[in-house]
Amino acid sequence: MSYKQIKWMILLIPTITVGLWEYIRHQFLMPYLSMDAGNWLTPVIVYLVSVTLLSRLFLMLEGARAALEQERASKTALEARDQLARELHDGISQSLFLLSVKTDKAGRSLAGTSHEQDLREIQKTVHEVNTYVRQAIAQLRYVPSPVADPEAVALQAQVESIVSDTVPEADIEWNLTEVSFSAKEQVELLACIREALLNVRKHAHATKVEVYTKGNASNWSVHIRDNGIGIQGDPMLFKDRYGLRITKERAEQMGWTFQLDSASGNTQMIIGKGQT
Fold first, then answer.
1. For residue 222, is pLDDT > 90?
2. Angle between the N-to-C axes of helices 150-166 and 116-140, in degrees from 0 to 180, rounded to the nearest 10
3. Domain end call among 71, 89, 118
4. Per DSSP, what are the bridge partners of residue 226?
5. Is residue 235 domain-resident?
6. What's the CA angle centered on 165, arms 202 and 259, to 5 degrees?
7. Are 259 and 244 in contact (CB under 8 A)?
8. Could you list the residue ranges forming a coiled coil in this record (predicted)?
């Protein structure tokens, strides 16, 4: 039943009930029912109808209104995400593309000079930032499926999308569908997972990558494991590993734990909350 139909039912049922009662009373019950008794029975009948039928209709009306408000809020959020994605694409993404073209042109003109290596580092950074921005645009334009728990499923789907874009051969086992993440927590967690997978793709030379989770609403953890070459030394001190430092800072700012265990054949990054 639609929202409009429910409103009309709430308006018409008392009117029809009173009209039908008055007709029956005057046509058939006058010899048996006094005027005072009939007047007392009228509000009683209206009350009983209100308690039995109208209360259910009011519950349906509230449910329909809540669904409409949720749909309106979701539409507003999607429009805001789409607007932000367009701004990123029309501004930062295109500027990065132009910068990439210019650095490539400069690289050809400076080939063989002492500045060639420095320019290659700049080109590498520009390409990486361009990749980050394009992935962010793709995530902003992701539309969650309308299911029973859309936020949890949307987060899982976005993780799967990140894996598909970075390390497609990775195995995923997502068991946090019962955990409710705020919008900020989702953004930060996705950024941490993306950075971990990008590091695996660029540096690990792994043949097996796993992304799995465990825990509950109060104690959970996300594990990114690979069988690559590992990391020699403290990666937080490497000048070219700023992504790992940023990931650690993100986790600490959210009040999460960050752990990185690395050895040849078994490197694992763990981001979690509480003790799991």
1. yes
2. 150
3. 71
4. 209, 267
5. yes
6. 55
7. no
8. none
- Is there a single domain that holds both residue 156 and residue 269? yes
Residue-number span of the structural domain to which 63 is assigned: 3-71
Is residue 143 in a domain?
A: no
Reply yes or no on whether the pLDDT at 72 is more than 90.
no
Could you identify the residue written with the tokens 């941490």?
A: 192
Percent of the chain at pLDDT above 70? Answer: 89
Give per-residue pLDDT as tens, 29-62. Answer: 888 888 888 888 888 888 888 888 888 888 888 8
Q: Average pLDDT, stretch 106-127?
A: 80
Gap between the Cα atoms of 247 and 243, Å rounded = 6
Region at 212 (left for phi over 0; alpha for psi -120 to 50; beta for the rest): beta
Count of the separate structural domains present in the chain? 2
Of 50, 71, 92, the residue that ends a domain is 71
Buried b (16+ CB within 10 A) or exposed e, 178-215: ebebeeebbbbbbbbbbbbbbbbbebbebeebebebeb
pLDDT, tens digit (0-9, with 9 covering 90-100), for 147-170: 444 555 578 888 888 888 888 889
